[in-house]
Write a structure and sequence with these properties.
This protein is mainly alpha-helical. The chain is built from eight helices and no strands.
Length: 193
């Protein structure tokens, strides 16, 4: 192979690299941002797609984030690749925080007078046996209700930030291409032949 390593990494080195990037998280985030901004679509499509993915990442519907993001992106004329990248906000590092926040907001919205913070009787058994009906009311319903305002807020912030960044990035790219090509002869009035 042309770019193969001389010394293959050991299993422990592969595991370390999978858990913690070799260069840094900042470099990984810059790469991720450039992946989003380099998509070939309008700034609205990129931002709307990413916002759809970000909203979907806040729902407790694990396994359906991509499908939900694609459906929302389709409805708002968003880019599907950007929607897939937006769902990456829900990752193993952020999901515990997202789930805790959505549960608390949903619990507050559904039971504003509830003071008792103890889990309901039999919740551990219901979770262990995947009894959907038993975990709907105490867990999933508050998470689903709480995911709507939090997801909409994050989606709105993501849309605004990514729209401005994509517009700026694309304008800078057009200027750079024009500068590289230099002054060119204008096309005739009838267009190019």
């Amino acid at each position: 192979m042309l770019f193969a390593r001389r010394l293959k990494p050991t299993l422990s080195q592969k595991l370390r690299t999978a858990l913690w990037p070799r260069r840094s998280f900042a470099r990984s985030l810059r790469y991720f941002a450039k992946r989003v901004l380099r998509l070939r679509a309008s700034p609205h499509a990129i931002a709307a797609g990413f916002a759809a993915g970000a909203f979907a990442a806040f729902t407790p519907l694990i396994g359906f984030h991509f499908l939900l993001a694609f459906a929302i992106a389709y409805c708002v004329a968003g880019n599907m690749a950007s929607a897939a990248l937006g769902t990456m906000l829900g990752n193993p590092l952020t999901l515990p925080l997202i789930w805790g926040a959505t549960y608390e907001v949903g619990d507050y919205l559904l039971n504003a007078n509830a003071i008792d913070g103890n889990p309901p009787e039999g919740l551990a058994h219901a979770l262990e046996h995947r009894d959907f009906a038993a975990i709907w009311k105490p867990v999933l319903e508050p998470m689903l209700v709480g995911s709507i305002p939090l997801g909409l807020g994050v989606a709105a912030l993501a849309y605004a930030g990514i729209f401005l960044a994509a517009r700026s990035f694309q304008a800078r790219r057009v200027r750079q291409v024009a500068a590289r090509q230099g002054p060119s002869a204008p096309l005739p009035a009838g267009g190019a032949s």
